Amino acid sequence: MAGVEQIKVEAGEAGMRLDRWFKSHYPGLGFGHLQKLLRSGQIRVDGGRAKADTRVELGQMVRIPPLGVDRKGEEALTPRTMRGQGDAELLSQMLLYEDPKVFVFNKPSGLAVQGGSGVARHVDDMLEAWRNKKGEKPRLVHRLDRDTSGVLVVARTRLAAMKLAEAFRGRDAKKTYWALVKGVPKKREDKISSWLVKEQTPDGDKVRVARHGEEGADHAVSYYRVVEQAAQTLSWLELEPHTGRTHQLRVHAASIGCPIIGDPKYFEADTNWEFPGGIQNRLHLHARRIVLPHPDKGTIDVTAPLPPHMRQSWNLLGFNEADAGEEE
User: Fold this and answer.
1) How many folded domains does the chain comprise?
2) Is residue 99 flagged as an active site residue?
3) Closest CA to 122 of 136, 135, 107, 137
4) What is the per-residue pLDDT across 102-161, written as a single tens digit (0 to 9) for each?
5) Given 70, 99, 145, 205, which residue is catalytic?
6) Where are the alpha helices (DSSP H) in 143-238?
C-alpha cells in the first residue's frame, strides 16, 4: 500500500510508551487520531497490533500508515524552510551523531558543502558557528554534491580530521547511497567500472565516460543492486562507490541507461518519456549510510533518513524502507 512506512525504534527510545513515541516523531498527530489508527490495526509493532501504552523496544519496526502530518524535523530541512534560520540552529537540526571527535550531519538537498559561484550559504561557512572554546572550527573531511542529501562527516579536531581524511583516501569508509532511477538495469546487481573525465561546459563542470587512453581521465568503480522497482518505469537502487570521483554515481547510473530522477546534468529522457505524476523533479540521490573507523577506536556507523522529496516518492511508489535489508 502506497504511503505506508516502517520506522525502527532507535537507542534512547527503548521502553517508551507507544503514544509518547508517536508524540516525539509526529508532534502534529492528535491523540484521538492515533487511538483510531491503533484500534483499526493500521499501526502495528513488529507486525502485531498494539495499544497506546505498549512499550516499544530497541530494533522493533513500527508500521506507520499515511498520517497527513509531517515527521518531526523533516520539513525544517527543505531549502524553503532553511531561510531565516541561524547557522547554529540549522546545524543542530541536521545533527545525527556526535562525540568529542566527530559530528555526523544529515545534509539537506540544495545546501552546498563548500562555497562556489552562486553559492550564498554552505556547510563549511556555517561551521564557524560551532567553533570550540579553543577557537577550533570543525573540519570537513569529505563532500556531497549540493543536491545530494544525507550523511556528512565532520571532524571536531585537527588530529581527527587527519585520521578521517586518511580513512576516506584509503577507502576504509563504506558509503551506501539510495537513488531512484529511470528504467530497470539489465542485471539485478553489478559492478560499474569506467574511466571518467571532467570537462567545462556552458552549464559548468560536467563529467563523462572517457575515450580509451584519454588524457586526464580517472578510474572509477561503483557497485549497485536493485532493491525494488515500479514496473519497468523506475527502480530503487542501492549504490556503493568504491572510488570517490566527482559526480561518479550520477554518471555511472546514466552510463547503464538508468539516469537518476531529477538530475539536471545527466538525465536525458526519451521524447516520449513522461515524468511520473506526484514525483518532484529534484535529484533523487541520498547518502544513506556511512561506516568508517573512528579516529580513536571502534567504528562510526550512521544512517540518515530520506529527505522529504524522496520520502514522498517512496510513498507514492509503495516502496518500503525495510525492504533494503540493511545490516545491523
Assistant:
1) 1
2) no
3) 107
4) 999 999 999 999 987 777 889 999 999 998 888 889 999 999 999 999 999 999 999 999
5) 145
6) 158-169
